[in-house]
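Lecture notes, continued. The same structure-token format from the folding unit now serves as the input rather than the output. Read the line below as a description of shape only.
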């Protein structure tokens, strides 16, 4: 079934398109990624039951962070090679508390952070509004700051916060040498280093290093339990024992000591067992998909497009086309509705004048796609676009 746009009600159109996209994600026979958060409540309950297999259910339930939650904290600390770790209900809370603690220890409320970082774009100025901290931007380029930019910052800062990968710039990571040099430059300025590692789990392929060596560069690390691991929710802050103890005090003050947290803990433990070992496979196949997109759009005669970065750093990357977001979203959803194949399942957003982008994620569902499958889906998608670019 196709949908005929009504130009008189843009808000209603946007909501209908969103609902169509969500339905298509659930019903698509072929899709590159099928994360659990798009599932029904029944499916999520089944996922929780499956996760129960990773832990002794005859143990008493957790109360304010003991039991299975403490086991999760110990597991993550071991994986990241840190002295301790603490579970938080959200990554936003974990990061605010980490930065607050470091500011108290360094005596400097300035945080060097990229303007595209999650801390700046997606947390409603939380670290400045809640803790009185102040951002310092080292670069406006769509990449992580360079060691030279860290050294030449015109004002001192107490903490350098690096989002690895930098999601809004295209899930970008620096090279290993660049990262180690950037961290060293921060140390030269007597600053501590915090990694916003919401997606750090999938960075090992790009860096060619184990998790503990990557995390070992920083003074503290936050990791998400649901973005890559398929957990229900939650985050972990890892670092020195003294920092984590102080963070626990602030977690209580911020209202983060939930009475029971076992659903998030169980699904996170399951993710560490089941999804974490597969992430390198997803990254490798994302590069196959990216190559096929590049070749498919070129063969379809599309005059301009962009896979960004050209070789994905993780299992997620951006794809750009010179059309307005609504045109591309409609074509993508209509393809899924009419063929059962959902090539571009994420929303489309404006990247700049005349250019829109979407995020492409490759996970278990996408491993069944070979290059020929991707190219066939590209040809069908391009056939649904209007002739010539439009804005």
């Amino acid at each position: 079934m196709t949908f005929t746009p009504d130009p008189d009600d843009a808000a209603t159109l946007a909501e209908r398109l969103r609902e169509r996209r969500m339905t298509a994600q659930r019903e698509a026979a072929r899709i590159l990624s099928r994360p659990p958060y798009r599932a029904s409540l029944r499916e999520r309950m089944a996922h929780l039951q499956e996760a129960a297999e990773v832990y002794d259910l005859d143990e008493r339930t957790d109360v304010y962070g003991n039991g299975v939650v403490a086991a999760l904290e110990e597991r993550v600390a071991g994986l990241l090679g840190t002295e301790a770790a603490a579970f938080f209900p959200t990554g936003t809370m974990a990061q605010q508390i980490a930065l607050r603690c470091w500011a108290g220890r360094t005596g400097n409320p300035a945080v060097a952070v990229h303007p595209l970082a999650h801390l700046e774009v997606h947390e409603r100025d939380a670290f400045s509004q809640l803790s009185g901290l102040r951002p310092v931007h080292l670069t406006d380029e769509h990449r992580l700051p360079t060691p030279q930019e860290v050294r030449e910052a015109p004002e001192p800062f107490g903490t350098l916060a690096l989002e690895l990968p930098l999601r809004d710039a295209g899930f970008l990571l620096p090279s290993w040498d660049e990262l180690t040099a950037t961290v060293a430059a921060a140390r030269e300025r007597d600053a501590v280093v915090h990694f916003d590692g919401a997606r750090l789990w999938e960075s090992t392929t790009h860096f060619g290093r184990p998790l503990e060596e990557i995390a070992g560069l920083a003074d503290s690390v936050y990791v998400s339990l649901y973005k890559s691991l398929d957990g229900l929710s939650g985050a972990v802050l890892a670092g020195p024992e003294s920092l984590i103890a102080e963070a626990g005090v602030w977690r209580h003050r911020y209202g983060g000591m939930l009475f029971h947290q076992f659903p998030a803990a169980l699904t996170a433990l399951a993710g560490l067992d089941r999804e974490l070992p597969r992430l390198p496979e997803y990254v490798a196949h994302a590069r196959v998909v990216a190559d096929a997109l590049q070749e498919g759009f070129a063969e379809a005669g599309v005059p301009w497009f962009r896979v960004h970065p050209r070789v994905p750093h993780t299992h997620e990357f951006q794809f750009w086309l010179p059309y307005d977001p609504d045109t591309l979203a409609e074509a993508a959803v209509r393809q899924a509705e009419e063929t059962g194949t959902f090539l571009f399942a994420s929303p489309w957003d404006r990247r700049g004048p005349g250019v829109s982008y979407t995020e492409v994620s490759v996970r278990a569902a996408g491993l069944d796609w070979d290059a020929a499958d991707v190219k066939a889906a590209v040809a069908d998608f391009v056939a649904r676009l209007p002739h010539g670019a439009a804005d």
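Point for the exam: The radius of gyration is 22 Å.
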